């Protein structure tokens, strides 16, 4: 009987298999595609950032850096003393207090020069008050308290004998006020732009109730 010979099989040593040219080409193509995708993403991020910056700059230019003309107006008129004649001998001598308000809606102060507020009747100056130079802060209103006296001393006889007599008979005396303010708006402490503003107000004075209804433009 033939003897069985025990044969032990040993695993062969691992061999270092070199990648084929096709595998190398596929890996290189994959790396190129990966780098290209990264560049595309980076380009998209840069484009989004640039667009965002443009939007911010445009919005900043249209709001903060836009220079608007300040407004000057009279506040409430409080009559202090009212003396008037009659239709036969028409005249008036009136004193009142009010505020000159300079409204600045800019994102920077408005520095204005001194000026005068003139009060007229039928185009003739009947009173005047001075406004010293000053500054209205950013997005604020500067209020200047003034005391005013107006009278009919400078009116020609033709005016007093006709128009003034009629208004005193109707107990409504209509005055007008005018002021022009010149100055500069300062933005970001570097840019200064000249701005002038003007006020024209109609002031009907109700002599029976001693009240004034302002109409300004």
From TrEMBL:
Pfam families: LEA_2. InterPro entries: Lea14-like_2, LEA_2. Keywords: Membrane, Transmembrane, Transmembrane helix. The chain crosses the membrane at residues 42-65. Residues 100-202 form the Late embryogenesis abundant protein LEA-2 subgroup domain. It comes from the Eukaryota. Residues 1-18 have a biased composition (Polar residues). Residues 1-28 are annotated as: Disordered. This is Late embryogenesis abundant protein LEA-2 subgroup domain-containing protein.
């Amino acid at each position: 009987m033939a003897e069985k010979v025990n044969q032990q099989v040993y695993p062969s040593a691992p061999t270092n298999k070199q990648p084929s040219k096709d595998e190398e080409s596929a890996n290189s193509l994959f790396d190129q595609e990966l780098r290209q995708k990264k560049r595309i993403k980076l380009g998209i991020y840069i484009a989004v950032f640039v667009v965002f910056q443009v939007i911010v700059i445009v919005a900043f230019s249209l709001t903060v850096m836009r220079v608007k003309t300040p407004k000057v107006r009279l506040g409430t008129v409080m009559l202090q003393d009212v003396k008037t004649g009659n239709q036969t001998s028409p005249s008036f001598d009136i004193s009142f207090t009010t505020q000159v308000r300079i409204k600045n809606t800019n994102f920077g102060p408005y520095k204005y020069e001194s000026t005068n507020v003139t009060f007229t009747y039928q185009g003739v100056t009947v009173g005047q008050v001075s406004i010293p130079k000053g500054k209205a802060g950013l997005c604020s209103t500067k209020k200047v308290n003034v005391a005013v006296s107006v009278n009919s001393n400078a009116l020609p006889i033709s005016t007093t004998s006709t128009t003034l007599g009629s208004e005193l008979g109707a107990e409504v005396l209509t005055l007008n006020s005018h002021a022009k303010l010149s100055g500069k708006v300062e933005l970001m402490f570097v840019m200064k732009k000249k701005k002038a503003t003007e006020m024209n107000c109609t002031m009907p004075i109700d002599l029976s109730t001693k009240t004034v209804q302002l109409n300004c433009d």
